[in-house]
């Protein structure tokens, strides 16, 4: 019996170490996937067809005071339309250089962009954001809930990282996982 108890303890210990290793590897993969998106931005709220995607991206750039040329864009396409969604599908843009993506993101800060600014007759909001992995997007949604539930003033994403701040002058909290939000 003692021998079997020792084997069980040994297996429990090994299982715990393997779980920790899997968690570490999942974190590394997530970080690498987010890093691979560093040149990408997502544009939401712009009606566009598959043939006009690059023109729509150029129009968004022009509305924000940035000329976007074809040579700056590695690829751009419409994202899949969500079921039962009435909004137009989003656009993903991969820039050749990270500095161009960062410049466009910095130009949209503090501005309320709408389809009216793009020369359309409608007045719907247009959002220009960093491209997040599905896991980071889920974590960001949870952080939005924490912000409203716990009365945090600031929530933002920079470089694929999620930050929270209770109020001006308070320390910035880096949100890496769900456990950070539970604290």
Can you give a write-up of this model?
With 183 residues, the chain is of the alpha+beta class. It is built from five helices and seven strands. The protein has a four-stranded antiparallel β-sheet, covered by helices on one side. Strands 5-6-7 form a three-stranded antiparallel β-sheet.
Task: Give the helix/strand layout.
Blueprint: H1 2-36, E1 40-44, H2 53-63, E2 73-78, E3 91-95, H3 98-108, E4 127-130, H4 134-149, E5 154-158, E6 161-165, E7 172-175, H5 178-182
Antiparallel strand pairs: 1-3, 1-4, 2-3, 5-6, 6-7
Sum up the structure in keywords.
183 residues, alpha+beta, three-stranded antiparallel β-sheet, 5 helices, 7 strands, 43% helix, elongated
How many E-type strands?
7
Average pLDDT confidence is: 92
Tell me the quaternary state.
single chain
The largest sheet, given as strand count, sense and whether it forms a barrel, is:
4 strands, antiparallel
In short:
By secondary structure, the protein is of the alpha+beta class.
């Amino acid at each position: 019996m003692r021998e079997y108890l020792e084997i069980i303890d040994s297996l429990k210990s090994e299982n715990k170490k393997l779980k920790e290793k899997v968690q570490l590897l999942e974190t590394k993969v997530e970080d690498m996937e987010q890093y691979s998106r560093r040149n990408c931005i997502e544009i939401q709220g712009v009606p566009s067809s598959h043939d006009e995607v690059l023109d729509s991206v150029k129009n968004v750039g022009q509305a924000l005071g940035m000329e976007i040329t074809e040579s700056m864009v590695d690829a751009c396409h419409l994202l899949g339309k969500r079921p039962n969604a009435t909004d137009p599908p989003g656009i993903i843009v991969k820039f050749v250089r990270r500095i161009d993506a960062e410049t466009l993101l910095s130009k949209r800060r503090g501005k309320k962009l709408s389809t009216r600014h793009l020369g359309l007759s409608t007045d719907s909001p247009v959002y220009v954001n960093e491209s997040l992995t599905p896991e980071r997007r889920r974590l960001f949604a949870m952080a939005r809930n924490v912000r409203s539930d716990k009365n945090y003033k600031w929530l933002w994403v920079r470089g694929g990282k999620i930050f929270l701040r209770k109020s001006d002058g308070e320390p910035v909290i880096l949100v890496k996982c769900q456990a950070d939000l539970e604290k």
